[in-house]
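Quarterly update from the structural biology core.
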Amino acid sequence: MTIEPNSSQPNSSPSPEVIPQPDLPPDDYECASNNGLTAEGLATQQALAKISSLQSHQHLAALSQARLDVKQAVNLRTGNAPATLITLVAIAIVFVGLALDNLLIGLLGTLLALLLSISVLLPWLQAVVTEFVSPQERSLFVAFLGAVAALIGLFQFTGINRRILAWSGQLNWDAVGALGEVFGALGQILIAVVAVYVAWRQYVISKDLTIQQNLLTVQQNLITQQQTIDSYFQGISDLVLDEEGMLEDWPQERAIAEGRTAAIISSVDGSGKAKIIRFLSQSKLLSPLRRDIRLGRAILDGRGGYAEDRIEGVRVIDLGVMLAAADLSGTDLRWTDLSEANLVRANLSRCDLVRTNLSRTILYDAQLVGADFKGTRLFYGSAQTATPRSRTQPPDYNTGEHTGAVIENADFTDAQRMSESVRYYCCAWSGETRATIPDGCEGIPNKLEMIKSQDLSEG
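Predicted structure, tokenized:
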């Protein structure tokens, strides 16, 4: 069966209505195929028919709803017009009654206006309650009213209210008043306690916030310090290294390197100072290097490193007094070269000084409490012949004369893993503080006092 377009009717709609076809048996499909309608065309026709049917149902529902809304609007307009007119008349009657001071006319107008107003306002109030108050809330409100009514009836019909009134008449109201004052005082005390508790909790919370803020500030400072140290490492590396290796002996570059080091050491804490010292020491920038006299270049030692020259060598960076009175307590200074540095009044307590070179270092009045002295070098040569550095005499690295550290008045309390040679040197040259050296100084002469006595006698 085919659908012919109705082209002969000019007033027909642009989209003709498609009549849904019932399902056909297999034989009918064959017949339809023979009449020019294929199976695909039939499926398309059925789908269009279903869509048209759904659209027609939706259209009818929308039209019905629109008619209902228009009808309600018309009824509202036509129904409210007489009620409004009568209400205005009733209001006029009320004013007439008030003007004539007539009770009957005023009462009649008042009742008429009240009834008409309630009849108009009641549907609106019902719609408002239905829209803004859920059924559960309405049920709870009605249940609350029912509970109040039930309690009133219970008190009224069982006589409980009369018993309460009789009992209250027998009370001593003076005592009740005094008891009320007591409870009032207790309430004020409780309020004061609550206020104190709230103030205490605010203090605790403020203190915790302050502590957390301080921790964040410390962490931020550590991050900033590490970034500064990293920038310093990169700057020193770019300055001291050239295409041929270690910086040549140009005084200006060495002066700039020492200036950068002095500036950053004064602006970082103990751990930052220790990091800088380890970097410079492991980079051989603190050791006196043997250099070519004419070219100023550092000379290799033939073993993959730079040759040291303790007597005439030149340090790329000379610490000098950069670490004087510095707080390096609890830091890691292992395998660092601090020879000839000025550490007067420095705090090296609990430092790890394993394999640290402190020869010719000024440790006058330094704190070395609990420091680890395993393998620490305080002098060259033998402990019996080694002496502290001198301002006028050159060092002798064979015998040890004038190669030792100045340890006068240094505190060695609880020093760890101190060798016998180091203990002997400390006992001989620490002066009055030799009593702080572990294992004592029995049998070891106080050479510092002997030299002082000799100088006084000669003077």
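Confidence is low (pLDDT under 50) at residues 1-37, 73-79.
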